[in-house]
Every structure is written in structure tokens, then in C-alpha cells.
Amino acid sequence: MLSMSAILSVANLTKTFRLNRMQRKLAHITNAKIIAVDNLSFSVNEGEIFGLLGPNGAGKTTTMRIISTLINSDEGDVFVAGNSVKEYPLKVRRKIGFLSGDLKLDEFFTPAYLFDFFSALREVPKAQALEQREKLFDRFGINEYAHKKLAALSSGMKQKVAFIISIAHDPPIIIFDEPTNGMDLLAARTVTEFLLELKQQGKTIILSTHIFSLAEKICDRVGFIINGKLVSSGPLKQIAGNGNLEDAFFSIYDSIRSGCMI
User: Quick check: 53 and 212 in contact, CB under 8 A?
Assistant: First the structure.
């Protein structure tokens, strides 16, 4: 059942993809159609961090892209601050920031240019955008590289630039798909600490990850997704019990593989 205080509600999402012959060959499967998300429902409450956890190929990225209005579901809907992603995608985009681990920025441009460009695209006033840029560049150690082309930066620095660009317009709801991918330990720690700061500011955060330790550090509630289905969801302590999230996940995963759980 979806929470009555939910600021983001995912309702009965289903998404399928058709694979061509080469894709089927590379994936070592014969079916032309795969179900990426299978009747998925969950909710995220205002001001909390919700983690969607699962292995690669579980449907996390597809779900995040549907929420972020990048792709459409076959069935079901998502409501962000009361707005359907299908009926009011522009209203939803004004409310959210989205970062995908595979986001590729044009390496010809500089961090400063890209931040200003995306701020203008989001209709952020110039003075506000400059203040936000100075704050975030200082927080993430980007000042030294602000006017260097992305092509000259490390992969970790590029990911940090992508991270701050996704929140250039200071959105109330932030959606991160594997936010620490490609980052070294220090950069990943900076992002983790910043996510907690955003929560303290009252932001709502939903992140997908396969890193259980990250979820344990920052999430209020989590959901386990396997083969496109939500198999468990609830407060972090309730899901982990007396153990940890990884053990809890693999207990469910092994039950599904053995056919003991449907």
C-alpha cells in the first residue's frame, strides 16, 4: 500500500523491451521480449532517503528513467508531488534533479560553462545560478578545474561535475542512479556526506544502488528489486533485522532462486 504522506509514488509500473537478434545473442537469451519492470509499486516520503537496491539488470535504472520522464512505462504511472509523469512531464521535471551513472557530458565544454548552461535551461536566475555554482564548486573541489575542458579531467572529477549539474536548479526531489559510480573513495565519501546534508535541508532523495554499505549509511527506507519485482520494502532497521542489508538481500534472493518464494 502506498503511503498517504508520499511525495513520490510509483504505481504498478510495467516496462518491456524488445531485443534484436544481436542483443539476444550478446545476452545469451532466446526471448525477443524481456520484462524490465514488473508491476512495481513503492512510495517515497517527503524529506527521506529511499534506496532501491538490487543487482545489475534488476530493473533499477529503467525504473529511475521512468520516474525521471526519460522513458514511458507500458502500464502504471508515477506521481511526483501529485503530478503524473505521463500527463504532466514538464511539471515533474521542474521538481526533480536526475543523475544517471552513465550520463555523458560533452567533453568539449568546461564545468563552468555546463553548469551555467543547465542552470539557464532550468530558468534559474543568473545571480542565483552564480551563487549556487560557487557553493557547489567549492564544496566538491572543482574551482581549480572550472574552466578546463572535461576531456582533460579524471573520470571521478567528471562524475562530480555531472553530480552538481543535476542539482543546479536546487530541486526538492533528487533522483540518483548509482551516484558514486566512477568515483574514487574520497569523492564517493564527499557525495555520501552531501546526500545527508541535502536530507537535512529537507530534500527528498531516491537512489538506486547495488552497494549495500552506501544504503546502510544514508537510507531511511529501502526496497529490494529482483527481476523487475519489488520483493521487500520497509524501514532500514526492519529490513536488515539483527543482521545487515546484504545478508537480508541474499536470504531473499536465494529463496527466489530455490523456488521457495514467489
Answer: yes
- DSSP, collapsed to helix, strand or coil, labels residue 190 as helix
Whole-model pTM: value is 0.87
Which helix (H) or strand (E) is 230 found in, with range?
A: strand 229-235
pLDDT digits (tens, 9 = 90+) for 175-191: 998 877 767 787 788 88
Q: Which CATH number fits domain 6-257: 3.40.50.300, 3.40.50.1000, 3.30.200.20, 3.40.309.10?
A: 3.40.50.300
CA–CA gap between residue 241 and residue 239 (Å, rounded): 6
Q: What is the mean pLDDT of residues 94-104?
A: 81
Distance CA(172)–CA(97), nearest Å, equals: 8
> What is the Cα–Cα distance from 234 to 246, expressed in whole angstroms?
15
Which residues lie closer than 8 Å to 23 by C-beta, 6 or more apart? none
